Amino acid sequence: MENWMSSWNAIYKNIEKKWAFMSEKEQEQQLAYLEETAGSLLDKWTELDEKIHDLKQPKNGRGITFSYFSKGTTFYDLEMFEQAAKTLKKEKVTGSNDEIRRLYLGFSYLFANHFDLAKESFLYLIQVSAYPIITHFAHVGMGCVHTKEERLDEAIASFEKANELTSSNDVVYNLGICYFFNKVFHIAKPYFQDYVEQVPDDGEAFFFLGCCHYEEGELDEAWTAWTTSISLLDSEEALIALAYVCEWHGYHQAAIHCYKRVQEKHVQSVRVWHGLAWNYALLEDKINAVNAFEAAIKLDPGNEKVEQSLNWLQESWPEMSDLLKC
């Protein structure tokens, strides 16, 4: 494989050097050649990968081993879902491999936002498969489609069926999310509790668990979950959502910590500087509040929300009026 790659790279570099001097027809011919050889390499890599995978499988004859590797699954692993769906649809296999192929096809359609086609693949497997693990993933796929279409009751039904066949962390989390957004917090809570016991480094799960505790009136438990999530969260939206929660409940230092975490991990933004400025102001930390407001104004001088905050504050801090003139 290394020799093939070296040979392909050498051909590519040679073509690249001469590219500017080629006619349009010659360029098309060379591109077609490169695409053809690259496709052959991909086919060979898939074949070798499948052989390696087969060696790893137990050969003692106990149980059923599911393994299906193809050009289509390779596209799927590369997250090229449109191409994966087109390729998987054309592939011809039999038995359990065909059911695995249909699972890959269904999830390729799902991630490519072809929801009706995804449903067809998953429904077929739910109706005909004799293998519980395949039926489990088909129900998971249906649950994901329903979630994408914002039909949460149907999503819950699918995830529940999947969970009855075999439980997994993803299904438990998805059930928690569906019940949460259906505002059935007392049912969502145990799913999140089970999930964080198995996946203790998921900050978003702790955030949702804290929200469930809060909705159930369990304020101490809510705050424990939220403070745990602060050190675990990575996404900008999740950290800002938690900052809003902290600010609302008067935990302004915690809100500041959330905004600083956003600054550490993501680009500077008016929303973050404004959030910092407002929470510093609520803590009566005038110096840091002014500095943060100045940073927000520098990024967006006419921001209406920043100006509104300054208008409110200048009644107590007249010097804020100077910032409004910037």
From TrEMBL:
Pfam families: TPR_16, TPR_8
Claim: Signal is one of the keywords in the record: no
Keywords: Repeat, TPR repeat
Extent of the TPR repeats: 136-169, 270-303
Record has Repeat as a keyword: yes
InterPro entries the UniProt entry points to: CellSynth/LPSAsmb/PSIAsmb, TPR-like_helical_dom_sf, TPR_rpt
PANTHER family xref list: LIPOPOLYSACCHARIDE ASSEMBLY PROTEIN B (PTHR45586:SF1), TPR REPEAT-CONTAINING PROTEIN PA4667 (PTHR45586)
Name this polypeptide is given: Uncharacterized protein
Organism: Halalkalibacter wakoensis JCM 9140
